[in-house]
Amino acid sequence: MSVTRSDDEGSRWGWLNSTLAFLAVALLVGAGVLFVKGPDVNPDARKAEVMSEQYTAITKAARETTTAFMDVDYTDMEPRIERVLAGATGSFQDQYSRASVELKAQLAQEQTVASGKILEVGIGDLSKDKAVVFVAADQKVRNKSTKGKEEPRYYRFQLDMVKEKGKWKVAEFGYLDGRQLSGDQSSGVGSGDQNSQLSPSASPSGGASNGQ
């Protein structure tokens, strides 16, 4: 015995099926938009992501340049100086470049070898293309004054950084005890004291700073 549906019942089932099909398509389209746009759907999430990427880029650049700055080997300074200059710009780049010849001579005279370790990096002021960064670092220094033995040095640096062509670079490099590597002191490049500032281990004593 066969069962037949009335015309009204068939219409109701047809309408229901059409509605379900429409909802399924709408859900798929919505999921596709979320998949393609991702965080863009949530402006706050995208802003947080951008800030995180910017923080990572700044701290990475600060670490690399400060590590290069503290890396000293009087027998092979040229590539080390190039690494510092690669992360520098503006006043810092200009002064470090101009002082490099006498810096190498002083390091050779003292037979200085040193390496540094970054302890902490913190960002103070931050804008779209500028940042003030604080770096705490330790350094081990060996030279004539230490009689060939490694001695510890402690430094706290302030880096004024700028973004150039998508890369963060150091425009000003200073010690938190007030010494500055660029700016008004540029006319003093070439003096023993200035070279000591251009490399924390250039002076016989190592140029230690306890950050106080």
Describe the structure.
This protein has one domain (43-198): Nuclear Transport Factor 2, Chain: A (Roll). It is 45% helix and 25% strand. The chain has helices at residues 7-37, 43-70, 78-86, 90-110, 192-198, and strands spanning 72-73, 113-126, 130-142, 151-164, 167-175. Strands 1-2-3-4-5 form a 5-stranded antiparallel beta sheet. The model is unreliable at 182-195 and 206-212 (pLDDT under 50).
Residue fraction in strands: 15-25%
Quote the distance from N terminus to C terminus: 100 Å
The neighbouring-strand order within the major sheet is 1-2-3-4-5
Report Rg: 30 Å
Amount of helix: 40-55%
CATH class: Alpha Beta
Q: What fold name goes in the CATH topology slot?
A: Nuclear Transport Factor 2, Chain: A
Number of helices: 5
Instruction: Return the average pLDDT rounded to an integer.
Output: 78
Descriptive labels:
alpha+beta; 5 helices; Nuclear Transport Factor 2, Chain: A; disordered C terminus; single chain; 45% helix; 212 residues
Can I get a quick summary?
With 212 residues, the chain is of the alpha+beta class.
